[in-house]
Write a structure and sequence with these properties.
Elements: H1 4-8, H2 17-33, H3 43-69, H4 95-110, H5 114-118, H6 120-143, H7 145-153
């Protein structure tokens, strides 16, 4: 199916990871200035924070490799040439966004900030409203039944 969407991608004109960065900074600002609720400052929590953050980044890098291998665009404002359905994409339609949620939780643990750790929920909501809905509409428009079949088999997040 060819449409004007083929030329401009999913109509998301900025990197969605910036949503996560904005929410992390805003929630840390709230934590620092108004509502300093900590999680705990133990070595175990710091190690857990590093591990969760590292897992999130590793998933993002793995997904990036999948896009490169498939020779399609990871940037949502550029045209997609194929649907990724294997590897991470056989478990989640949005493993990058799920991984960024993990990274945000890890940052919250490292920063000893409950607000940062739980604000991933707000990040996920914003990413869904701002990016995922447009991306899914674009993929449905471009790939039709193939995308709908994939969407019926694989969860959005995890």
């Amino acid at each position: 199916m060819n449409s004007k969407n083929d030329e401009k991608g999913a109509a998301v004109t900025f990197p969605p990871p910036l949503i996560f960065l904005f929410v992390i900074l805003a929630s840390y600002g709230l934590h620092f200035f108004f509502w300093p609720i900590g999680i705990g400052n133990s070595l175990v929590l710091r190690i857990l924070g590093v591990a969760i953050f590292a897992l999130g980044i590793a998933i993002v890098l793995s997904a990036d490799k999948s896009f490169k291998r498939a020779e399609t665009n990871i940037k949502p404002w550029k045209p997609t040439t194929r649907i990724l359905t294997t590897g991470l994409y056989s478990y989640s339609r949005n493993p990058i966004y799920s991984a960024l949620c993990l990274a945000q939780i890890g940052i919250g643990l490292l920063a000893n900030s409950l607000l940062v750790a739980v604000s991933f929920i707000f990040s996920a909501y914003l990413v869904f409203q701002i990016a995922i809905r447009k991306e899914e509409a674009y993929l449905e428009s471009k790939f039709g039944k193939d995308y709908l079949d994939y969407k019926g088999k694989v969860r959005r997040w995890i």
